[in-house]
Amino acid sequence: MNDFFPELTPIFKEFVETYAGRKVCVIGHARPDGDCIGSQIALSEMLELSGVDVLAVNADRIPEALNYLDGISRIGIVNPSGLGDLPLVYVDCADEFRVGPKTSEALADRRRVLNVDHHITNTRYAERNLIDADASATCEILAGIALDVGLDFGAPIAQAMYTGIVTDTGRFSYAATSSRVFELCSELVKRGASPQVATQNLFENETLSRMKLLERFLASLTLECDGKVCVGQLRQRDFVETNTSYQDTEGFVDYARTIKGVSVGVLLEERKTETKSSLRANRKELRVDQVAQLFGGGGHACAAAMSIRKPLNELRAGLLEALAERV
Predict the structure, then answer these.
(1) Residues 167, 267 share a domain
(2) Which alpha helices (H) appear in 78-235, and where do they start and end?
(3) What is the pLDDT of residue 82?
(4) Residues 32 and 80 in one domain
(5) Residues 214, 301: one domain?
(6) How far is residue 321 CA from its own chain's centroid?
(7) How confident is the model at residue 228 (pLDDT cuts 50, 70, 90)?
(8) Domain-embedded: residue 2
């Protein structure tokens, strides 16, 4: 037996004991990423191995790069009317609204029985909350708990967990990449996770259309706040003219952050009814999650995001004003 998450593992055990022989719905955040989908697959399998029946759903389609994961077919598009009165289990959601506006409204009266997450802004909105803001990924928490309870799992779960960790750590480069992360990944590889397969599917599988979208983002970059903030933006026409989707911007903001002298990278995306922004900082003390909260968003100290019904230029001006006080 291991001891990766001694405070959280007993809560997981209690949950399993309570819901063994029953069915729950595992739901992740809208516009899912590797940690969200990896967590949904991993937790669904963990619960079923523990005697809990599971239905897994998401409000949006799964990014193509994640289709290599075994178990991906078990995640369906959410249909609130088809969920009956199933208790809800949330993964990688800082609050209950992250599942998407229409979905959260439709599920407002449902029981939220479990919340597994690593965001510092998590509101602890469920009956049981497995939260560790020091964890690099929700999949890190799940991997630790699975090992703590001695769960006998193989390659499919290990690969899903590894995917969540490698994506949310920026390929093991972000500040939250601790020694525990490497210990857990070592255990996952022993159980069949393949770093090579993950890398080939996640990071070496680009489309030409996405590269053309990236070209436009890079061409838009400007330095602000005495060179400490780098901002790039994409308009609706950029997606249309390159035949790309909003999911294709994953990782773009990191190009802005990695420029010499820059402390915070900003990505602004003009969407049909709103503007989305992603923030990446190179130091925890900059607390970009607090900046995001000013605009109804949230996240981590070094990585945060928001979506707001304001024109792109208006959100850009507001963000620069807020960031100027921090960098």
Answers:
(1) no
(2) 101-106, 138-148, 155-168, 179-190, 195-202, 208-219
(3) 78
(4) yes
(5) yes
(6) 27
(7) very high
(8) no
